[in-house]
Structures are given as C-alpha cells and as structure tokens.
Amino acid sequence: MTYHPLSRARLTIDGERVVPRELAALVNRTAAQLRDAGVGRGRLFALTGEHPLTTVVSALAAERLGAPLLFAGARAPRRVAVTATVHASRTGGPLVTASAGRPVGLPDTAGAVFWTSGSSGDPKAVVLSQSALRFQGAATAARLAVSDEDRLLLPLPLSHAYGFSVLRVWRHTGAHLYVESAFRPARVLDLTAREGITSLDGVPAMYRVLLTAASRDASVARALRGLRVRGCGGDVLGTALHDEFRSVVGAPLHDGYGLSEAGPNVALNAPGLLRSSTVGTLLDGVRARLDPGTKEIQVLSPSQMLGYLDTGGDGLSRAAFTEDGWLRTGDSGALDGDWLSVTGRLKEVLVVNGETVAPAVVEEAVRTASGVLDAAVVGVRVGDRGDTICAFAESTRPEVAATRRHVAETCRKLLPPHMRPRTVRIMAELPRTGAGKPDRVRLRALAAEGMAS
C-alpha cells in the first residue's frame, strides 16, 4: 500500500490552499524535531488542539518516523505520559515540546491512539497499528471508488477516528482534500458548487441541517444531489432522515458502521452498492459474526485495535476481545450474507416493567415529530422499578410547549405504552461529544436532576 508523494499533495484548509513544498517542509522539520526529542517506534507523542494543518503535519510526521501519535485534545479525560507534545502556533504551524519523565511504552507496530467518544461511559484510549491505518485508507477508498480525480470535503475534526479515516483515504489516493475546521452550512454548499466537490462527509445532525436548507431551496438539493458520495457516520442514521433526505434531494446518504476499536470502518453503503435499513456490506478483508445469545456484533479485521492503552502504566488491555481474537463491539445486529444491520447498543438497552427497550427505536419516533431536528433517549433507574425513559429533543422552534406536545402525540401513535418517554425536554442544541454524538453521560445527569427536582 503506497502513498502518494507530498510533492503532489492537494490540500485546502479553511479555503487556503496548502502549497505542497511548504507542507513537505513542515513535515520534514516537525519529524526532525520529534526525532531529536526521542520520538520513534513505540515512543508515543501527543497532539493537542484541533488545528487541521497541525493535525495533518503531525500525522505525516508520525508516518515518517513510524511513531505512534496520541490525539489528546481538550476532551481527553486524563494525562498520558508521552515523549513529546505538538501544538499549533498562532499561524497554525506545529510546535514541538519535549517531555520529561518516562513515557508510556507501546509496541513498535503502534501508529495512532484515539480516545473513544465516551458518549455512554468513560472514554478509552484505543491503540491502532500502522498497518491498520494503511488498511483503512485502502479498503475505504476501494469501497467508495475514490481516485485522485475526487475532491473530498470534510467539515469534521481530523483528530477523531471518522475524520482521520478520510485523511487516510486522501493519503492513499492522492485526491484533493478540503478540510473545514467548523461546519458552516452556507460555506459547505458554496464549496460544493464552486470547487466541484465529489464527496462530502458528515454526521447525521449536519445532514439534517442541509436537508432543511434543501427543502427550502431547490438549488441546495441540486448541489447535494450532484455529489457522488454523501458519507454519513459518527452516529446512527435514522430511517426518517434517510427517507426524507432521499425524497427531498433525490439521492441517498451513504452511511456505514464503524468504531474506533475497529479502525474505524467495518461496513459501508456505497454508490451502486446500497441497501436501506442496513449499514452496507463488510469491507473487503473484514469478517463479522453474531454472538448466538446476545446477537452482539463481533469483528475480525486487519484494522482492529491492538488493545486499550493502560493509562496507569505500560501495556495493552485485550479485555474487548474474545478468546479466539474477535473484537466484541458492544452493538447488537443482524447479518444477511455480507450485509450488516445494527439494531442497538447492548449497554444502552433499557428495561421498563420487565421488557427491554432499545433507545434507538424511541429516538426514531421522537425525530418524526414536527419541529424536531434530532433526539436522544436515556434511562434513569429508580430503585428496583427499572428504567424511566427520558427523551431530549433538539428543536430551533420557539414554541417549546407545542413541540413537546407534538412529540407526545407522535409517540402515542408509534410506540406501545411501555416505550413512551415519561419526560420530554426540548433543547436548542443537544450536548455532544467531540465526535458529534449526543453526550449520553451529560443527558443522563440532566435527566436525573430533573426527576429529583
């Protein structure tokens, strides 16, 4: 798996074209400074902040040195001992600071360390190998048929597994990558039209905003329809959004299934290879099976993690693997040949009056209510009575009482009594993790506070 030379790299960040020779010079300088600080195979260095240029340079420098890169942004929950730290200067260029003390030791094959989103519990540090990163770039590019003629637009952080996988596709194919440090709908649409963007990647919440714009303006629908790939990840793509987007825009979203522990992509829907109600077919080289009892999805992939980093010392935890080496994902699903469907998160299943309830089913009902842009459902356990279902609905409408009433009416129509939320809270914006997922830890705390008051 060879990479395209930096001398021909095409990269645009926040509208500014990065000159290939200047990019190569930054990578050379940063790699030399990291080497002088002691960074090398198995010698971890950290990247702080979310500046796209510094992230790209750090990733390329890590690749050059064969060294592991820890993405330690503001949301990283704890300090990990590293050999050096890279942060962005005022101009966006990387600055290297050597660290004192004994760094965490990693295998020589380690290439990157990502924090899981922590949307439903404590974040964990996932260690991926260099070969895993190469495999992801090649396999994802092959599934989506990305070539050096493509123009990829990414308004997501590069320091999370989803965004970083797009960076690997860029590295593998030589496509032109446009990175935006924030999602601004008008700018995304302008770039799509002006630069001839062929592939856009985003989370469901982003596509809901674009869908609203498309329903009001036919030119927006045409711009989205003109994309070859409309990648959607980072969270579950609900049936309502999937169907409405296809109806309004006249083209589908290409969702998939992945998790940081798997590198991240496991399965993808792609142009010409798409089936609704599934997350697509397994990437070439990836295998999946279901636990006979729980229906948990288990994965065997060239890009699965080496293990979780033991942040208290050296070593990797293999607790997430079965005895025969398959990765336990914690998600339940179904398999039809190579077509994979995801039905829920095992740890998030609620129990109400002795019956299990998948939050995703309730969330899908809430999202169909008039005025709701997104939804998240959590359970609050009170004594031995099981979970009380609490729904949070994102809406920009000022009529809060009316929106809450629409949600209640919709849930009465679509859900049996035990699955209906006991409380519905309308929010202008759901709290989210850095990966764009609803932050269920914060929402569960808010729900508990509301019930206690």
From TrEMBL:
It comes from the Bacteria. Pfam families: AMP-binding (PF00501), AMP-binding_C (PF13193). Residues 362-437 form the AMP-binding enzyme C-terminal domain. Keywords: Ligase. Residues 107-298 form the AMP-dependent synthetase/ligase domain. GO terms for molecular function: ligase activity. Belongs to the ATP-dependent AMP-binding enzyme family. PANTHER family: ACYL-COA SYNTHETASE, MEDIUM-CHAIN ACYL-COA LIGASE ACSF2, MITOCHONDRIAL. This is Fatty acid--CoA ligase family protein. The lineage of its organism: Bacteria, Bacillati, Actinomycetota, Actinomycetes, Kitasatosporales.
